[in-house]
Amino acid sequence: MDPTPSLAVPKLFDLSGKNALVTGGTRGIGAACALALAEAGANVCLVQREPTDGASPNLETRDAILALGVQAKIVHCDLSDIPAVRLLFQSALDAMGGRIHILVNCAGVQRRSPCVDFSEKDWDDVIDVNLKSVWLLCQAAGRHMIPLREGKIINFCSLMSYQGGLTIPAYAAAKGALGQLTKSLSNEWSQHNVQVNGIVPGYIATTMNERLLNDPVRLQQISERIPAGRWGQPKDFAGPIVFLASNASQYVCGELLVVDGGWLGR
């Protein structure tokens, strides 16, 4: 592994000239991360599904990134379509001039049902998007980054990387596995100057958690256990993502950075 550069602290966080590929980057936590990377100087490639039924594409994040004076590209892929995922990294390379320095796997889906009723289709959907697509993108990124001896991979895990949750068996299984996958990749790739780490969000006010936010009983139960006294917001991930994508985290390898307002410590 290359040593941490001898730079002034602000320069350690500077991502000027770097290219980042971000899944899930058009809304919620992913959009906040994409914007933060761009504010630090990175060019960003967003992964987006093709609009359906004549709907207009969501270009809000792309336009906000462009307004910062860096490049913003969009590649289209449905992460539940595994054959398409196998082609995604190369599409991003083509869009970004042949170089990806940072991969952020933030996209995810959720299905809720009692375990005895949980369907095989829901299981496959969650595992494909939340685990298999991440594995394929990480593998493609590793093949690109290792020969160049430079790269940052950041996987969005979950509190379910540590806990089992309720009525979300596939999500818990995928996120538990993703935590271990992150460590496994780090064990092999750190020596090649490719740092692989994870971020573990706590309870964040996003569309994925609308069902919990709209359930008064569960909302109170969860909120009362968060030491910080509030649910997280997407902007709470701006600092952590820039840290893990930059030279500031050069000697941070295989870590799962928990951003949860103190939930796990409780």
TrEMBL record:
GO molecular function: oxidoreductase activity, acting on the CH-OH group of donors, NAD or NADP as acceptor
Domain Ketoreductase: 18-192
UniProtKB keywords: NADP, Oxidoreductase
Transmembrane segments: none
UniProt-listed InterPro entries: KR_dom, NAD(P)-bd_dom_sf, Sc_DH/Rdtase_CS, SDR_fam
Recorded family membership: Belongs to the short-chain dehydrogenases/reductases (SDR) family.
Name the UniProt record assigns to this protein: NAD(P)-binding protein
